[in-house]
Design goal:
Strand order of the largest sheet: 3-2-1-4-5-6-7
Region (Disordered): 25-74
Distance between the termini: 53 Å
Radius of gyration: 21 Å
Largest sheet: 7 strands, parallel
Strand content: 15-25%
Number of helices: 12
Order of helices and strands: EHEHEHEHEHHEEHEHEHEHEHEHEE
Biased composition (Low complexity): 31-74
């Protein structure tokens, strides 16, 4: 088998594939063999803002597994397959990230994997050959039903999981405990759809675990405990820092939005109130929206707080590194409280995380939600300030803890 194949479904996944490739082959930028550019199927490739700066020579991350190819030989080519989502914000960011990946010499296929009833079969037919011949498969979301189905049909010899948010922490924990794979914000009971797909999930979980003839690597910027037999490689955002910035710093603060309301975890009224308090307390002027946040919610935030709502065209790590960016960035519990200190190392930007108080949670939220969110806050990098939440009274404000 030859070659390396990455499946991505979000802009952050593609960013972290670029970071992974950068660590694998010293001195070659992303360290992959450029392939012949593949045309996008179904949608024309988008254009992004031109990158600035020159990539520095990459160095292997501490604890990185040995390259697929022997030292001194040509690295195995890396092909990225974008399993395109349906929501416009994700698609737009992915098109721009795909162009950045092409600029770095990667071969990128745009696959309309969710375009109508026959999309699944078309995708499987097109990917069957590359999957069978791939030496390594890289995925960003082990909870994805699409990826799980692909893994049940074609088990890779080497598997790498890159970050797609804090779910990496839950994946590592569930894999280590031998549990079935369930997203942390989902209820514990299985619905009709989950029952139908249970055999797929069960087999995929076995394919995501190390075994004789199969290695598993987690490439992450998050604090995870390595399950038995799994190699954990640190992501220091070296490619991002080499490629962009340092940013121009502005006065005041920027707020980072979250999709906790959209996923049914946090009450919308509590969320809107706290955003207003954070803006007042820290002199914030901009609100960077999560790509899944709804238009009605964002309109309410803009009207009630006076914040400028920004829909980033790229993952926030790249937006912040390119600048301009506030001297303080305030976020709710999410991946960025781990990634931004790495991407912005040495720039003087201060990152703070606001804890989610129990009274903000909806009655329908998963029983695991509070513990998981507290864990994200508690394991944030030591450079990150913690904001202490107070009960919902008009006189209260959020203060640094």
């Amino acid at each position: 088998m030859t070659g390396q194949l990455a499946f991505v479904e979000s802009p952050v996944q593609l960013l972290n594939v670029l970071e992974w490739a950068h660590t694998r082959s010293p001195g070659t930028g992303t360290g992959v063999t450029p392939g012949t550019e593949a045309p996008a199927t179904g949608t024309a490739p988008g254009t992004g803002a031109p990158a600035t700066g020159a990539p520095a020579a990459g160095k292997p991350a501490s604890g990185a597994p040995a390259p697929v190819t022997a030292p001194g030989t040509t690295p195995a080519p890396l092909t990225v397959v974008v399993l395109s989502p349906t929501d416009p914000m994700s698609r737009g960011q992915l098109r721009r990230m795909a162009q950045l990946a092409r600029d770095e010499g990667l071969t990128v296929h745009w696959q309309e994997a969710r375009d109508g009833g026959g999309a699944l079969l078309r995708t499987l037919r097109r990917l069957a050959g590359p999957l069978r011949s791939a030496e390594r498969v890289i995925i960003g979301d082990p909870f994805s039903r699409y990826v799980q189905l692909l893994l049940t049909l074609f088990g890779p010899r080497h598997l790498t999981v890159v970050d797609d948010g804090t779910a990496t922490m839950e994946f590592a924990a569930q894999l280590g405990r031998g549990e079935r794979l369930v997203r942390w914000h989902r209820k514990g009971s299985l619905g009709p759809r989950e029952l139908v797909l249970a055999p797929v999930t069960t087999l995929a979980r076995r394919r995501l675990a190390p075994a004789r003839g199969r290695t598993v690597e987690i490439f992450t910027s998050l604090p995870v405990e390595a399950p038995a037999g799994v190699e954990v490689t640190g992501n220091a955002y070296a490619w991002t820092r080499a490629r962009f910035g340092p940013p121009l710093l502005t006065g005041g603060a920027d707020l980072v939005g979250t999709s906790l309301v959209e996923t049914g975890v946090v009450d919308a009224d509590h969320y809107a109130r706290v955003v207003g308090e954070l803006a007042d307390a820290h002199g914030a002027t901009r609100y960077f929206a999560h790509r899944r946040e709804g238009a009605e919610k964002l309109h309410r935030i803009a009207v009630d707080t006076g914040l400028q709502v920004v829909r980033p065209e790229l993952p926030l790590e790249l937006v912040a590194r390119r600048g301009p960016v506030g001297r303080t960035i305030v976020s709710f519990p999410s991946t960025v409280v781990h990634t931004l200190p790495l991407a912005l190392a040495g720039t003087g930007v201060r990152v703070a995380v606001c804890e989610v108080a129990p009274e903000w949670l909806r009655a329908t939220a998963s029983p695991r939600a509070q513990g998981f969110l507290s864990g994200v806050t508690g394991t944030a990098a030591h450079e990150v300030d913690r904001l202490t939440a107070r009960p919902a009274r008009p006189a209260d404000r959020l203060e640094f803890g």
